[in-house]
Amino acid sequence: MKTSFSRRNWIGAAGTMGLATFLRAAEESGNPVATNIYPWITFAKRTGDRFEHHSDSLMADIASTGITGYEPIINGTAEFEGLANRLKKHGLLMRSLYLNSTLHDRDKVKESIAGVLAIAAEAKDLGTEIIVTNPSPIRWGGPENKSDEQLRFQAKSLDRLGAELRKMGISLAYHNHDIELRNGAREFHHMLTSTDPDNVKFCLDAHWVFRGCGNSEVAVFDALAHYGERIVELHLRQSTSGTWNEAFSLKGDIDYSRLIGQLKEAGISPYLVLEQAVEKVTPKTMSVVEAHRRGKDALEGG
């Protein structure tokens, strides 16, 4: 499917544009920095603390970092109970949310799409404009790969879902993990080449592209070159020698100054969402609140 955006624009874009300017413009346009709750889950797991989704204490901690955007993981409409009041209490915006969907399975797709649309209807009343989805693998952590027939069906289902959300005034943003980059990244590419760009946008999680392609920054910038015009959101995570850092920074395995500089040069201002999670081998030097304060500081000082 052709687009009007030239790959040459990305290759020729300046790689050292100031992120502070980009961030200020984003905030002035109502596009503040946000955090997904996934990193908060991983920090809680590391310390053995119980994690409660959408809790008052979680939102208080997020607000204490100066971050004003909240991107939850939503699994059902029941999770919206009391959420509006807690968001208002802590001055948080929920411009986006993340959910998983099952779109490759003909027996489950109808129920999955209906579930997403029901969530979207509730979220729209809270100001949500972007729904980020990862069409789930056959089995999380498993070695199975989807067949070509399943990938074709999934792309059609993803496009259908995006079209339905467009009618509601919500953008659907495709999100991948590392598993979609297996086998020549055929799943990743098929979702973005076989869907209508008006129906299916892109949430670039640069680090999952990096890791899924064998820790390759080249792969990240190739994804940007091919699909940059569809990006409506960035998930921000940094690593050193392949290991996730505790706090986001512009420099590391991925040059985010260059990445965001190219976006700015192209006139694209995606939603910026910190997703700086920790894993078993990540150094343990700071709390989740301190890590997010440092991540926001890195963005503002870039």
Describe the protein in words.
- This protein has 302 residues and is an alpha/beta fold.
- The protein has one domain: Alpha-Beta Barrel (TIM Barrel), CATH 3.20.20.
- The chain has helices at 7-11, 19-28, 38-47, 56-64, 83-89, 109-124, 148-167, 182-193, 206-212, 217-227, 256-265, 288-300, and strands at residues 34-36, 69-71, 96-101, 130-135, 171-174, 200-205, 231-236, 239-240, 243-244, 271-274.
- The strands form two sheets. It has an eight-stranded parallel sheet. A two-stranded antiparallel sheet has the order 8-9.
- Helix 6 (109-124) links the parallel strand 3 (96-101) and strand 4.
- The protein starts with 6 loop residues before the first helix and ends with a helix.
- Mean pLDDT is 91; it is low at 1-19.
**Annotated CATH architecture:** Alpha-Beta Barrel
Tell me the name of the CATH class: Alpha Beta
At the fourth CATH level, what is the homologous superfamily?
A: Divalent-metal-dependent TIM barrel enzymes
Q: Could you give the count of β-strands?
A: 10
Largest sheet: 8 strands, parallel
